[in-house]
Design brief:
alpha/beta, Rossmann fold, Domain 2, N(10)-formyltetrahydrofolate synthetase, Formyltetrahydrofolate synthetase, domain 3, 12-stranded mixed sheet, 4-stranded mixed sheet, globular, disordered N terminus
Length: 563
């Protein structure tokens, strides 16, 4: 395949020039009626609980997971490939639905950008989806902060549960990168203002409520999971839950509409369920089970993605989400780009336009590690080489031949410039993988294994660490959590996305490194234990020049500068 990528307009220009079908027409394409969709304007809708209930006995389609190498500022295009693959499957007359996460305003206004794809492989209306959408993330922020207010009010009004104000672990949340809120003091100003204590903010997509919503399949399960969330410890050092406070019903009320999956469309009018948005570096990084399960009932093929590289999103999908979903991917797409691999091989961002076969060859070690991770889970996969206009034919040839020498299926995709047409070869190879698959998926650990075994297994088998160190605090928490009966839960690692190690500066495939576990956090409602590594934070900061500086709106109300 020779270079075909042309100069393409900005994502927002392409999106604004695209024609949209009424969302009720998109619904009818997948067997839903107008009454099955609750409209949020003309081009967005939520699938009703009644419609989802009617689907419960339908057989499920095939699930395709899209993941990637470790991300770099050069770009990998995982979401773009996800959208393009879904469009390509529909071009092949396969009934396909895309299931992705909702973007957070933090990276949208910061540096990463949105999460609706790019070029001619986008989900629309991209302006709405990348901003307020249907209000799901705002509902999660509201529920999160309502719980924080109720905790502080309980302590102020007599503290019947004997909550130790020094051991309140529930933080407030805002859907924005705001480093100034990482550590705050609340309750100042005298007795009428509450109980003074240290507090802090997480970004909303790191809130346990986001994870709870994404892992719940019914209103009843949502309420139950919310009730199990640990918010504090009492003076006897015993956990205090939402159920102890008696407010799980109020939180469920605030989230009842947010639980319904959102239905939108691609530029090529493929149906897409965009729902839930946990980050993969500090949370479990997958869209909602409600959306994935509903899509599987409505389609022959469902294309979903997991955040960041296979060391984070894919590992969490396969060890956490697959267990809750009770479905493993039938095949995986591992996205790589020449640009990103050259960065992993030591080439600077400013020189990426220049051909550098040596850096590319060295950077292939990163791709190799992610291939080994997928092989450890025993899932079939295809490597998607996402082409950029700056890639030379020699670089593409080197990458393709390397994959072939590794005896793995590889496809050169050009979905950014060509839409679904540029992903047809990938779609055909994925279908063939699924139809000829004889592998049986296996998680990396059993739930009965100890928490330390689970953490060590991920650190060594997925990251390639030689050793795992635990702080004194983390070791004490390991003992306490096992005593509480939480040892049977899976582990959600919080780690930098840029490196296989816990040091974001170590690109490529670092060797002989140590992963440091500094703290464990119980997310009992979500159903996993978070292990904090290195210096990763649950509240990011904005860059020196946030993307927000280039954003505006024209006289017709259309967004400007939104990618």
């Amino acid at each position: 395949m020779t270079t075909t990528k042309k100069q393409v307009a900005s994502d927002i220009t392409i999106a604004q020039q695209s024609s949209l079908s009424p969302i009720v027409d998109i619904a009818k394409k997948i067997g839903l009626t107008e009454d099955d969709v609750e409209l949020y304007g003309k081009y967005k809708g939520k699938i009703s609980f009644e419609a989802i209930h009617k689907l419960k006995d339908k057989p499920e389609g095939k699930l395709i997971l899209v993941t990637s190498i470790n991300p770099t500022p050069a770009g990998e295009g995982k979401s773009t490939v996800t959208v393009g693959l879904g469009d390509a499957l529909n071009q092949l007359d396969k009934k396909a639905i895309i299931a992705m996460r909702e973007p957070s305003l933090g990276p949208t206004m910061g540096i990463k950008g949105g999460a609706t794809g790019g070029g001619y492989s986008q989900v629309l209306p991209m302006e709405d989806i990348n901003l307020h959408f249907t209000g799901d993330i705002h509902a999660i922020s509201t529920a999160n902060n309502a719980l924080a207010a109720l905790i502080d009010n309980h302590m102020h009004q007599g503290n019947a549960l004997n909550i130790d104000q020094r051991r309140v672990v529930w933080k407030r949340a805002v859907d924005m990168n705001d480093r100034a809120l990482r550590q705050v003091i609340v309750g100042l100003g005298g007795p009428l203002q509450g109980v003074p204590r240290e507090d802090g903010f997480d970004i909303t997509v790191a809130s346990e409520i986001m994870a709870v919503l994404c892992l719940s399949q019914t209103i009843e399960e949502l309420r139950s999971r919310l009730g199990r969330m640990v918010v504090a410890y009492n003076f006897d050092k015993q956990p205090v839950t939402v159920e102890d406070l008696g407010v799980e019903g109020a939180l469920t009320l605030l989230l009842k509409d947010a639980l319904k999956p959102n239905l939108v469309q691609t530029i090529e009018h493929s149906p897409a369920l965009i729902h839930g948005g946990p980050f993969a570096n500090i949370a479990h990084g997958c869209n909602s089970i409600m959306a994935t399960k509903t899509a599987l009932k409505l389609a022959d093929y469902v294309v979903t993605e997991a955040g960041f590289g296979a060391d984070l999103g894919a590992e969490k999908f396969l060890n956490i989400k697959s267990r809750a979903l009770d479905v493993a991917p039938d095949a995986v797409v591992l996205v790589a780009t020449v640009r990103a691999l050259k960065m992993h091989g030591g080439q600077g961002k400013a020189e990426l336009q220049e051909e550098n076969l040596q850096a590319l060859q060295k950077g292939l070690n990163n791709l190799k590690k992610h291939m080994e991770t997928l092989e450890a889970f025993n899932v079939p996969f295809v490597i998607a080489v996402n082409r950029f206009v700056s890639d030379s034919d020699q670089e593409i040839e080197l990458l393709i031949k390397w994959c072939e020498n590794q005896q793995v299926e590889v496809s050169l995709t050009d979905v950014w410039a060509q839409g679904g047409k540029g992903g047809v070869d990938l779609a055909q190879k994925i279908i063939e993988k699924i139809e000829n698959n004889t592998k049986e998926f296996k998680p990396l650990y059993e739930l009965s294994d100890s928490l330390q075994f689970k953490i060590d297994t991920i650190a060594k088998k997925v990251y390639g660490a030689s050793t795992v160190d635990y702080t004194v605090k983390a070791r004490k928490q390991l003992e306490q959590f096992e005593e509480q009966g939480w040892g049977v839960l899976p582990v959600c690692m919080a780690k930098t996305q840029y490196s296989l190690s816990d040091d974001p500066g170590k690109l490529g495939r670092p060797a002989d490194f140590t992963i440091t576990i500094r703290e464990l956090k119980p997310k009992i409602g979500a159903g996993f234990i978070v292990a904090m590594t290195g210096e990763v934070m649950t509240m990011p900061g904005l860059p020196k020049k946030p993307a927000a500086y280039g954003m505006d709106v024209d006289e017709k109300g259309r967004a400007i500068g939104l990618f």
